[in-house]
Amino acid sequence: MAVFEINDLKYSYKKNPNPVIKGIHFSIQKGEIFGLLGPSGAGKSTTQKILTKLLPEYEGSITFQGKELKSYGADFYERIGVGFELPVHFNKLTGLENMQFFQNLYQTKAPIEPLLEKVGLLEDKDKLVGEYSKGMKMRLNFVRALLNEPEFLFLDEVTNGLDPKNARIIKDMIAAFRADGGTVLLTTHLMGDVEALCDRVAFIKAGEIIESNTPKELKIKYGERVVDVEYVKDKTVQKEQFDLTGIGENEAFVDLIKTHEIRTIHSGETTLEDIFIQITGDAYVE
Amino acid sequence: MLNSLTLLKSEMKRLVKYKILTISLAVSVLWMAMLYLIGRENAAGFVGLFIALDASVMSIIMLGASLFFEREENTLKPLLVTPVSVAQIIGVKVLSSIYVALQSAVLVSLFVRFVMDIEVQFVALILLVALIATVHSMIGFFLAMTAKDFTGLLVNMILYTFIFAIPSLLVTLDVISGWVETLLWISPIQDALVYMNMVFGVEETLTFGSIEFILSTLYLALLSGVLYGTFIHPNYPGAAVKE
Ligand SMILES: Nc1ncnc2c1ncn2[C@@H]1O[C@H](COP(=O)(O)OP(=O)(O)O)[C@@H](O)[C@H]1O
Ligand SMILES: [Mg+2]
After folding, report:
1. Domain locations along chain A
2. Choosing among B15, B70, B81, B235, which should be mutated to test the A contact, i.e. which has the most A CBs within 10 A?
3. Is 0.95 exceeded by the ipTM?
4. Do B75 and A90 touch (CB under 8 A)?
5. Contacts of A55 in chain B (CB under 8 A)
6. pLDDT tens-digit series, residues B78-137
7. What does the radius of gyration of chain B's CA atoms come to, in whole angstroms?
8. Chain B contact for A101, CB < 8 A?
9. Between 2.40.10.170, 3.90.199.10, 3.30.2320.30, 3.40.50.300, what CATH number should domain A2-79+151-218 receive?
10. A235 burial type by CB count under 10 A (0-12 exposed, 13-18 middle, 19+ buried)
């Protein structure tokens, strides 16, 4: 069942008449992690803001659990959690006070300290957020999104500014959230997050969705069916490429691996990073 | 309803943490010291002026600055994705600025009543300070939401204060009178001054039951309502989301 169903969504910011979102369609199924990918300025955050009802004046139709998004009131926010792209805390309150401030506004309350412990902030809970590092603030942002035990999570560039260890912790928590039946919309420009998490992805560029599929299908579609072999000949390393189709009957290939010392063999499966560059035509910046 | 209370409690706690209440207390102490130095004979004429300025200009500054710094901290946005409504968010901000204005007004009034033996109409004081703080909070919202940056907000606040306070000063000094004085009713700062003079028994021209009093009170209430309904409420989400 689709949790979100988005049809022909268009949006322009007031001061700029040029549309930022130009008629996009996609749906998010219950229990999946859906990745909205694209270069900076593509419209990912804008889409997320529309879906979280922060930008009400859109064109097109959006349904949440089968009902028009516009028909929801405050109850909508009891059911979703939002992880913002930038830290959103009171600097002069402690981490714990910040979490209490927001949690008091919800009916359902997840225990705060276990969440802080999971992201490694329990020891710093009584420190002022103003003294937190960027990475600590981003982890607190993530905890904030989970305070009301949401069924749906919006995460905008959630691993932004995290070191690999902490990024891994957050990714594991997102996977655990899905395992518990939760659904996620992940907007990101980092393909590492996507490889690790996303069940389906859509590439957005300049306000249009230009490709949408599972990561695996995308790799098959955009991958080259070739095998690259590195081998030693005359004491130097040489390279050769073979077609993957019929590789077993390819005598040159079989002969090569029989008679030479092989350094590496790679099939031409592309990474999402390559696909990102191919599809969006932009340099991939990490 | 429950949400509003929680939000109000949190907001008050925040005012304590951000030392707003302390600053307001310090300003009250300053007013009291000045009144004490001015002496009993002339203090009655000044206490109204101080409280009027406190409830009007301070409310504008408090609302404007707090909105600004919160936007800088990015804390306005996450509130919009919680079950509290925009009306609740604005209402709580106005209530807490009423509280700050009342704290100051009541403290200073208690001081002049019991230390300097000046008559104070406490019920009127509380109701009118609440009204003055409300309309100026709305003006504070308006000025902050129309300003591009912090400098813009400061310029807006200074312009507002000058445009509305200088004529009041000129009237007090009898430089202008007649129809200009009548026209000054549209200035919320002027209304605040007149109200506070009533509370401290200075102003002879206006009494609580008079038609002018009722009209200007209705006017201030209407001004608050119009600012809220036509500008602040509809534009708040957009202003809060802007980065
Ligand atoms: N508040 C705003 N007003 C006007 N234009 C905006 C605003 N926010 C974003 N934009 C523009 O909309 C486009 C999409 O931005 P955004 O959704 O933030 O992109 P992304 O999250 O994919 O990096 C960009 O061209 C950006 O400049
Ligand atoms: Mg973004």
Report:
1. 2-79+151-218, 224-268
2. B81
3. no
4. yes
5. 241
6. 999 999 999 999 999 999 999 999 999 999 999 999 999 999 999 999 999 999 999 999
7. 18
8. yes
9. 3.40.50.300
10. exposed
